[in-house]
Every structure is written in C-alpha cells, then in structure tokens.
Amino acid sequence: MTCFRIRRFVASFILLLLTSAYAQAAADVEVKETALGTTHQLRIKSLTPSPDGKRLAYVVSHGKKAIQLVVDGKPDATDYDGVAEKGILFSPDSKRVAFIAQAGTKWVVVVDGAAGEPYNTYVKGSLAFSPDGARWLVAADAAGKRTLLVDGKAGKSYDDVVNPEFSADGKHVAYVARTGSQFFAVIDGVESPAVDAIVDNRVIFSPDAKQSAYAARSGEKWAIVTSTGQPRSFDAIIAGTLTFNSDGTRLAAGVARGANYFVVDNAVEGKEFDRIVTASLAFSPDGKRLAYVAERGGKMIVVVDGKEDAGFDSVETPPVFSGDSKHLAYLTHETTIRDSKPIKTSTVIVDGKPAGTFDRILSPPIFSPDGARLALVVIHDRHLVVSVDGKESAAFDEILQAPTFSSNGKRVAYAGRRGKEQFTIIDGVESEPREAVGKLTFSPDGGHIAYGAQTGGDLHIILDGAHTPGYSGVIHGAAIVFDGSNSLDTQVYRVNELLSVHVQLKAPEATK
Fold first, then answer.
1. Angle at CA 384, nearest 5°, toward 380 and 389?
2. Per-residue b/e over 4-42, b at no fewer than 16 CB within 10 Å?
3. pTM, entire model
4. What is the pLDDT of residues 40-50, one digit of tens each?
5. Which one of 2, 135, 254, 309 is most buried, counting C-beta atoms within 10 A?
6. DSSP 477
7. CA gap 281, 216 in Å, rounded
8. 474 phi and psi, to 5 degrees?
C-alpha cells in the first residue's frame, strides 16, 4: 500500500565514529560552532532545543541516582531525583527555560533556575509560557486536588483543571475547572456560575485578546457565553465549532434548535441543515469570510459566505482559504461506476469549481501565500506524485515532506523517497539521491533555502547548495531557523559533542 507521511528528519542518536576527517565547508559558506555540552551521561529523551535554534537544554545523570539540568552546556547547581516526561520547556522567545523536576517524593517547577513550591504531581503537558515569554503556568496536584499556578501563584483547588491557556497578549489566563459534576470557566481567577458541561472543555480568547468565549450546558439548554454580551441560548452547540475571526469582531458556532442545525455568526443565523460538521468552521485570514461544511439529504455541502456549493458524498474538513483570503479550496470524495465497478475518486474544488480529479488526494490543499498557486500530494494512475499548478512530478514511493512555498509564492520545494534513496525537489529540479534529507526551509524573504542531508554517513546542513562540515546527526527536535535572509541556526552532534551551528552565506566578493 502506498504510504504518504510527512516525516520530521531526526538522525538516530547512536554515537557514530566518522571514518574520515570532517569535510571542509564550501568556499561560499561560513560556519560558527558553539559547544552545548557532551553526550556523557545524557538522557536522550530530555533533549530540548530552543525555538530560535541557538540554545539547548537537557538532563544528565549525576552520581548514582541524581540528575542535573544542563542549559547551553552549563549544569544547574542543584541535584534532583528525576524529570517529568516532556518536562523541559523554552519560552517562545527562547530567553527562558522551565523544568519540572522530582525532589524526593514531591515535584517542583524550576523557572530560570528558581524552584517553586513542591507538589505531589504536575499535569502532563500543562506547563506553558505566555506568547511573549513573560509569564508561565502549570497545573499541579496537591492532596488529590488540582490547582493552576500562574507565575508561581496557586489559584483555587478543584477536582480537575483542564486546558489552561494564555491570551495572545499574555495578559489573561483561562481554564475549565470541575468540582464533582459541576464545571466552571475560570478567567483571570474569576469563576463562572456552575454548569453541567462546557463544550470541548475549553475557553477561547479572541486573537486581539479583548474577548473570551465558551459554550456551556445547564440542564437541557446550551448557551454561548462571552465576556462582552449576554449569553445566547440554543438546544445544542456542536463540538469543535466555536471560533473567533482574526480580528475578534466575529464569533461563530454550529448550533441546533429543535431538529434544525445552522451556523450562528454573531447575531446572524445561517441556513438550516440536517447537520453541521464538527471542526469544519473556518474564517478567512482577513476575517471577512466564513466557510463550513453541512449535511442535507445525505449530501455534504460547503457553505461559503452564506452560499451553498454543490453537494458531495464526502467532504474533508475544514475548507482551506488562501493567504490572501480570495480563494477557497476543499477536497471531495465520490464513488462512480466505471466498467460496472464502483470507483472512488478525489477532486479538489477551488472557488466552487473542480480543479483536478485523482485516484486519491493525500494532503490538504496547499496554497502559496499569495493565493496564486496550489499544490497537492496525490495518487494518480496508481503513482504517488506531487501536483503543483496542475503539473505532476515524477513518481515516488513516499513523500517525505509535502510541498512548501516561499513567502513570495515564486518557489516551491518538497522531498520524496524511491526505494532507499531520498531526494529534494526545489523549483522543479530533483537532487541527486541521498541517504536521508530533512525538512526544507525557505528564508523569510524566499530567496534562500536550507535543509539537512545525509551522505556517506555524514550529516551536512545545506544552504543554497553550499554545505557545512560533516556531523554525526541532527539533535532530536532541532529545526533550521533563519535569523536573517542568508543565515540560519540549528543544533547538531558530532560524535559526543553537542553543538549549535550558525551558517551564513559569504558575500559574493568574499568567495572570488
């Protein structure tokens, strides 16, 4: 069976002995290496690269039982007894680091080297920084109750605390709490009246951080509750549909009244259907357009700006708007009879019109940022290919990375595999075969492209065809991050050395 998988490139963390001296960097690229520590006593699963590609945190064994946190190659002075799974976190700006550590029979959160109060446990996956990195939160357990810590300060205790979130500006915090069979929305420490259920167990903030909203049930009635208006009641609210537009001026959800289902967009009620499909609502990036998927008479229908497209047997959700908000694409699946046999096909619909039918479409529609181009991963005539602007690539056994466009939409890149060999395809040009290739990343201006590639057992970072010296592999979870139009950072290892590498193209005159 043909397989489509977008695979993150991660070299196996087995210490490799290089059989030759490290290859010299190409004449037109400069490489600066910064030591981040060694693999000695390293607990591999603890490796945590920073978002900017420059910093690294991990845990090492220290003595017989103790562990130490190491950040940027420098061990913390305090010994601990353990680390929580996925318990190390950098702030989005990479300036701060938090760590959930075991101290005896208790657990503590260590933020920027300072340990907080001990608790029995912490809720897995709840540790988070605000988008600006200034604040942090985590859900903790004490004496069988749970509480949310915000900047180290504990709130009220409940039987459960779920889905804590910061607003986009980091100034507000919301979560859902439960005591017995009653649920509460808690926003900036203020508890809502008790309800019987909260849809998706989540409170959402508008992107401008000025509003919050949630959907709650009390008895047989459901209501959309916002911070700026009176609750609106319905017979049901569809899970996964409550959503704000990009500027926070519109709030939409799929709802029911009696046997009729419809979308309410602020105070405007849409057309009635047999069903509104969960998780199908999508606002355009500019916030002015709304699309969703509904069902009537056994057919699935995409509704765009209040107008119905044709009905299909099946529609994948959600519909996809282009970055300029001018175009909308979605995938349909139909069964037709061909030579007395049922044949299943997939079609991409763009702006209400068929734009290509294939044996099967395996990726969502991928628009270029300007909306002018469209790419898909498809099976056509039993071959796995990439379609860009209607032109199909050569066949592959697997697509390792779906097409990605440059910011100006003029360039496109993806990666594929045939047998044991892997290839990059950049601007339609297929590379020579390699043992492995990593994620292809365009610079912010779209003028440059970089990726990792393994050849002859060595890993090289390739920037516009120029390569770094050879390394043993890429550190697990590390990404290529451009910090300018022609320079980047990432993290690698060479035998037992952990390194941050800064790669920059030389000026043209410097390479002559």
1. 65
2. beebebebebeebeeeeeebebbebbbbeebebbebeeb
3. 0.88
4. 999 989 999 99
5. 254
6. T
7. 19
8. -90, 135
